[in-house]
Recover the amino acids of this structure.
């Protein structure tokens, strides 16, 4: 099974990918691995050991962690079939409950499997593909959390709609219980077992939106980030940039200059004036030494704008308004195909402002005054962004990702035989700025790292 991830300053783990939307065009049959991909079965071998008088359960982890996968673009499950419920979800059916040997079941009993803990978004269905109906089990759609296993190999299907994290889990209690009710009463003399299952997933990423407008449409009014109270560093947001296979950290973003005319779906509240040309100007970047941030197009990865940590005073702009400064034109524009990309793990603060580059104001000047500067916080990968000393205690500051729980660990020496002690946590993430404090006064020699678990 996979171990929890740890970070000592700049260590980064976990690969994130963007899942693909499903278009109901071509109906398909599901397969074990999901996404029409052939995958190895992973046995959960269950066996009753007569000598120890208990059930045993062993997971074959030689094939790694199974992947919850969406079906291919343009495909959907047949809406008339018993597995149509899986449309639009990432799924997998590799895990199979399997008899690990021959043994007798006590008279009047059956083997029951009960969900005792798991990721809330994870759904479970009985059967897979053409081999059985996808009946909800283990609490899915209000079903019982107990499921009576027949003793014959069975592959349940696990599914998540729009995965929000890259790891999911479920923990099960396996026991002898009454064949009709599932009650363990009368069979307590038989030892039971627990098993922990995990799945990897490619999170369905929701683009981060910058809403651009103005304090008023009149000439001289300042431009404004309309959703600043929700997205700036002052709001506590720390946008997580996910690791990619190219050793970069990335998040999709949308820049939206709200419309002033009905032709583009307006007029929106606090739109810029007609003739304004709204641009997003990078002002400065605070981040790890030698790091940089870039805004890239999704198609082909062309760089739209970039800025280095410590750089300031150079006007780096991204035009959001669709027109290039036409008089009386709608300031509306929407850039959907951009990603923010960092090259180094750590905590970043990007300062930017909004500027009007038109010449449609009085005397050929811009219509709008520039906005005040705004600061956005990003966390790239798994790393302590800042380690501060506060009232004699070490405080680690970092951005916590959705679906993760964080711990702070301390060691008094650093080497091959380092022994780490958990000193703070657990603390749940969620695209927020987080702090973990060592409750003990700072020692003369102390090393700190983050540990993260799903």
């Amino acid at each position: 099974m996979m171990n929890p991830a740890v970070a000592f300053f700049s260590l980064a783990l976990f690969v994130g990918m963007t899942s693909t939307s499903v278009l109901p065009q071509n109906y398909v049959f599901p397969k074990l691995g999901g996404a029409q991909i052939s995958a190895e079965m992973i046995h959960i071998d269950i066996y009753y050991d007569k000598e120890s008088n208990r059930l045993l359960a062993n997971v074959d982890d030689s094939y790694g962690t199974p992947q919850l996968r969406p079906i291919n673009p343009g495909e959907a499950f047949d809406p008339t079939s018993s597995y149509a419920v899986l449309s639009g979800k990432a799924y997998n059916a590799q895990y199979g409950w399997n008899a690990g040997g021959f043994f007798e079941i006590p008279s009047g009993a059956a083997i029951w499997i009960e969900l005792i803990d798991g990721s809330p978004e994870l759904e479970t269905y009985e059967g897979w593909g053409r081999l059985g109906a996808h009946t909800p089990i283990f609490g899915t759609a209000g079903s019982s959390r107990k499921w009576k296993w027949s003793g014959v190999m069975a592959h349940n299907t696990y599914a998540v709609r729009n995965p929000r994290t890259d790891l999911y889990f479920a923990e099960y209690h396996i026991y002898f219980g009454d064949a009709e009710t599932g009650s363990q009463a009368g069979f307590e003399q038989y030892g039971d077992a627990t098993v922990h299952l995990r799945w990897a997933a490619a999170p369905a990423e929701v683009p981060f939106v910058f809403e651009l407008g103005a304090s008023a449409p009149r000439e001289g009014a300042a431009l404004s980030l309309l959703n600043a109270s929700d997205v700036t560093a002052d709001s506590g947001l720390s946008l997580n940039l996910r690791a990619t296979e190219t050793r970069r950290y990335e998040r999709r973003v949308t820049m939206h200059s709200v419309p002033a005319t009905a032709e583009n779906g307006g007029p929106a509240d606090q739109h810029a004036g007609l003739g304004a040309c709204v641009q997003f100007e990078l002002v400065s970047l605070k981040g790890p030494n030698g790091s940089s941030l870039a805004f890239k197009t999704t198609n082909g990865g062309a760089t739209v704008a970039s800025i280095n940590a410590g750089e300031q005073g150079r006007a780096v702009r991204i035009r959001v308004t669709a027109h290039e400064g036409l008089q009386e034109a709608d300031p509306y524009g929407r850039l959907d195909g951009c990603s923010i990309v960092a090259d180094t793990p750590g905590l970043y603060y990007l300062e930017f402002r909004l500027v009007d580059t038109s010449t449609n104001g009085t005397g050929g000047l811009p219509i709008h005054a520039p906005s005040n500067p705004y600061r956005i916080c990003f966390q790239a990968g798994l790393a302590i962004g800042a380690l501060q000393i506060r009232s004699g205690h070490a405080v680690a500051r970092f951005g916590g990702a959705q679906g993760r729980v964080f711990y702070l660990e301390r060691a008094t020496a650093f080497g091959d035989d380092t022994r780490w002690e958990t000193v703070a946590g657990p603390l749940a993430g969620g695209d927020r700025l987080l702090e973990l404090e060592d409750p003990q006064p700072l020692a003369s020699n102390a090393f700190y790292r983050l540990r993260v678990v799903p």
About this structure: DSSP finds one helix and 33 strands in the chain. Residues 19-201 form one domain.
